[in-house]
Write a structure and sequence with these properties.
Layout (H helix, E strand, L loop, with lengths): L30 E4 L5 E4 L9 E6 L4 E5 L6 E4 L7 E10 L2 E4 L3 E4 L9 E4 L5 E4 L7 E10 L2 E2 L3 E4 L9 E4 L7 E9 L13 E4 L10 E3 L3 E2 L7 E4 L5 E7 L4 E7 L5 E4 L12 E9 L4 E9 L1
Parallel strand pairs: 18-24
Antiparallel strand pairs: 1-2, 2-5, 3-4, 3-6, 6-7, 6-8, 9-10, 10-14, 11-12, 11-13, 11-15, 15-16, 17-19, 19-22, 20-21, 20-23, 23-24
Length: about 300
């Protein structure tokens, strides 16, 4: 620093002092952990040595937390929406300035299911359905029955199957056998809500009798998205003849696969889709069993 004397002449300078301004160091490991359908825990490492405070911001730079205090390393974000993603960061500062951490995006859990239902369609197939909870996808777990309780749960449908609908057909099961089921929900990031749905136990039908054959869906509605009706609980070597109500033969289906089900594409022998109406199906097999089913198509 210099001064002036009475004649306006600069005097000898004073001693020189160096001042170092230290802005606190920001965290680079900021991250969030999903806690529930409405809570996310955010955490970071306190690497700053000269901070005055931390503040928590979202990606639009809105202050969500107020002052968190010196040496803060966690903050819980509350009252969030299920299956919703949030992008945030933490800001550290002192009197000289501040720096923001890295940003992280985390989604809350999707809501858990509470209304899983199911029924045996035939000796090899079980149909499951549940209420929509706006999950991104659903996983299905199945277990064998051991003395009335589920054995080891096995994941039979995971996030990669992209099951976003509210129904599922489980095929190729053993006849006359109990199976346990439960379902969990995935959020947008593919993170599973660990809370499962209610558990249900279903027994497949006794196979080998055309009396157990059912057609699903029936009635068929074109708005359902599927372009077929499935005949379930078929025996081996089944012949199906589809007639109009006035007795005109439209198509003949021969299923020798032994799979226990057949997906009919709703076409006649000319390759044309059947119109809306009532149709009569005559089923027979090599054992002399016969069955008549009525199906309805609505377009």
């Amino acid at each position: 620093m210099n001064g002036y004397n009475g004649d306006g002449i600069i005097t000898t300078p004073s001693n020189i002092t160096n001042v170092t301004i230290i802005v606190p160091k920001s965290s680079n490991d900021f991250n969030g952990i999903t806690i529930s359908t409405n809570l996310i825990l955010w955490q970071w490492t306190d690497v700053a040595l000269t901070e005055t405070n931390y503040i928590f911001f979202n990606n639009t730079n809105s202050n969500l937390s107020g002052l968190l205090g010196t040496n803060a390393t966690v903050w819980t974000q509350k009252n969030l929406q299920p299956n919703t993603c949030y992008t945030n960061y933490v800001y550290v500062f002192n009197e000289y300035g501040g720096l923001k951490s890295n940003e992280d995006s985390v989604c809350t859990y999707a809501l858990p299911l509470k209304s899983l239902n199911g029924e045996a369609i035939d000796g090899n197939t079980i149909s499951l359905s549940w209420a929509n909870v706006n999950a991104t996808a659903y996983c299905i777990e199945r277990a064998n029955d051991i003395n009335g309780s589920p054995d080891n749960w096995q994941l039979i449908v995971d996030f990669s199957k992209n099951l976003a609908s509210t129904s599922y057909i489980d095929k190729n099961l053993a006849p006359n056998t109990y199976y346990w089921y439960r379902i969990k929900s995935y959020n947008k990031q593919g993170v599973i809500n660990p809370q499962p749905s209610n558990e249900i136990k279903i027994k497949t039908a006794i196979a080998g009798n055309l009396e157990n054959v059912v057609a699903v869906p029936n009635p068929y509605k074109a708005t359902a998205g599927k372009q077929y009706i499935t005949f379930f609980n078929l025996t081996k070597n089944v012949n199906i003849k589809v007639y109009t109500v006035d007795g005109r033969l439209l198509t003949t289906i021969q299923d020798d696969s032994g799979k226990g089900f057949y997906d009919w594409d709703l076409k006649d022998d000319a390759g044309e889709y059947l119109d809306s109406g009532v149709y009569i199906c005559h089923l027979s097999n090599d054992e002399g069993q016969k069955r008549i089913l009525k199906i309805v198509i609505i377009r």
